Amino acid sequence: MLAMAPGMQIVVAHLGGREHVDYFRLAQDHPIAFDTAMAGVNWPGFDPLTEEALGNIRRRPELFLFGSDFPSIPYAWEHQAEVVKSWGLGVSAERLVFAENARRLFRLGTA
User: Fold this and answer.
1) In what order do the strands lie in the sheet with 10-12?
2) How far is CA 110 from the centre of its chain?
3) Which H helix or E strand runs over 26?
4) Quick one: which H or E segment has residue 34?
5) Chain centre to alpha carbon of residue 57
6) Each residue's pLDDT tens digit, 27-57
7) pTM here?
8) Distance separating alpha carbons of residues 81 and 9, to the nearest angstrom
9) CA-CA distance, 59 to 7, in Å (whole number)?
10) N or C end: fewer C-beta atoms under 10 angstroms in the chain?
11) Nearest to residue 7, comparing CAs of 26, 25, 24, 32?
């Protein structure tokens, strides 16, 4: 698919889940972003983030978008924001994840 549509922007749900490392490798050469929906939450079927995944987020925060999957989630939507804040990204990276990356992806301009 990436070869057929080389300019297509792909957003991988749930940070790629158990395939995060493989998707992150693809993101080095292709326009791939990751949403944070259900990533790192304590919920059956969703594993805790690995140190490798956290390291990838910290090194390349421009690839990650806040996602909550609201309203179809089994917990309060604020919980996902709390989880992302617990990753220790820092103010600049959080600004990218919570706002700027989505503005760039959807060509919304600046706030």
Assistant:
1) 10-12, 32-35, 64-65
2) 20
3) helix 20-27
4) strand 32-35
5) 8
6) 998 889 999 999 988 888 788 888 999 999 9
7) 0.88
8) 24
9) 23
10) C
11) 32
